[in-house]
Write a structure and sequence with these properties.
Number of strands: 11
Strand content: 25-35%
Oligomer: single chain
Shape: elongated
Number of helices: 4
Largest sheet: 7 strands, mixed
Order of helices and strands: HEHEEHEEEEEEEEH
Length: 243
């Protein structure tokens, strides 16, 4: 709001002093303008925020502190769903420090790669992936809460990792070592028509199966974790349906 400077009104010298009409008009208008601005500000402050439907609001509202299955409906209900609708993978960057060392391009590549890995895993597992909602279609929303690249470091020092501290300082080896990267991946399944919550999970995942061939790739550890997560979903859905 613009602030008006104070005005000085003087009466003309002489035996009879009169306030000029223009000054009198300005004196009456300024309080009215200021009052109108205050009313508009008060009205804007009391206006409610735009409502978000329950179906669009994410189940995972905060940055996860632990991993695992967060929420699940009963198996009898989940068995009704035999198709999947994949949404775009979302980056949850409320805590930027969990993406240290990742460029914008690398974040974008990871979101597309995660989407494609899950679609491929579901299809190879015999489950249809569709673009349209409908009966028996579960919508899969994936969110990346953090991603750390693999670091290649000297093989004779001590390091802090996301999974704990490792001490290599006693080794008589001047070679190199790879500190495994990881990705914190969350997701939720909802009914594609009603938005009803079906399942929610979050997990920090990395290289699985002791795969040394992926040890030194910058993002190979995170990719391996995504693949393992997608495979876990497929195995769980297979078991749910007796496959």
């Amino acid at each position: 709001m613009r602030v008006f400077p104070p005005c000085s009104f003087r009466t003309p010298s002489g035996p009879v002093g009169r306030i000029r009409p223009a000054a009198l008009l300005l004196t009456l208008l300024v309080p009215l303008v200021l009052a109108g601005c205050a009313c508009r500000q008060q009205a804007a402050a009391t206006e409610p925020a735009p409502a978000v439907s329950a179906a669009d609001a994410p189940l995972l509202l905060e940055h996860p502190a632990t991993g695992g299955m967060l929420y699940s409906r009963e198996p009898e209900l989940l068995r009704r769903y035999t198709k999947f609708q994949m949404e775009h993978v979302v980056l949850r960057e409320e805590r930027p420090e969990t993406f240290q060392g990742a460029s914008i391009e690398e974040k974008a590549d990871m979101t597309f790669m995660t989407h494609d890995i899950f679609v491929d895993a579901l299809r190879r597992g015999g489950w249809e992936v569709t673009d349209k909602p409908g009966p028996g279609v579960a919508r899969l929303r994936l969110m990346i809460f953090g991603m750390q690249a693999t670091e290649v470091v000297p093989g004779d020092a001590a390091y802090d990792t996301p999974f704990g501290r490792i001490d290599l300082s006693r080794l008589d080896d001047a070679g190199r070592a790879a500190l495994m990267g990881n990705i914190t991946l969350g997701g939720e399944l909802t009914d594609s028509e009603t938005g009803a919550r079906l399942l929610g999970f979050v997990e920090r995942c990395s290289v699985t199966g002791l795969d040394p061939l992926r040890a030194f790739g910058r993002w190979d550890a995170a990719r391996s974790g995504v693949e393992a997560n997608a495979a876990t979903l497929v195995r769980g859905w297979n078991r749910l349906h007796g496959k």
